Amino acid sequence: MKTGLVIYSSSIHRLAEFYCHVFGFEVSEKDESYALLIAGSFELVLLETEVSKKASSTGKAREDTPIKPSFFIDTPLELVGEKIKEKGGALYQPKSWNFGGRQVCDGCDCEGNIFQLRVGKNA
After folding, report:
1. Which fold has domain 3-119?
2. With a threshold of 0.85, does the pTM exceed it?
3. Which label site among 75, 103, 113, 120 has the fewest CB atoms less than 10 Å from its CB?
4. Per residue in 17-74, pLDDT tens?
5. 3-state secondary structure of 12
6. What are the domain boundaries of the chain?
């Protein structure tokens, strides 16, 4: 099964740049209202609507959002944390734990959307 995620954004360009830089997504197609990013068999769709453009994007983590996407990576947290910070996001270090044989840590992107990193054993 192929999987994907849709995120409403106040700035498609900025958010696409974040996910491409941090997680290696590639822009498959885009226009002024959306961007389709692909990494492996995962599709990330960024949508910019009149409502999402008006939403304040303070960069503060949206702790009350009931969903948290997970990204499985093979890069040490220190290195991916630098990439996240370079593009305006944050990594919640040293608050990490082990789950399912992987090191786990939460972070947020440049618009405050929270995600979880699951670091492989080969990192």
Report:
1. 2,3-Dihydroxybiphenyl 1,2-Dioxygenase; domain 1 (3.10.180)
2. yes
3. 120
4. 999 999 999 999 999 999 999 999 999 999 998 888 776 555 567 777 788 999 999 9
5. helix
6. 3-119
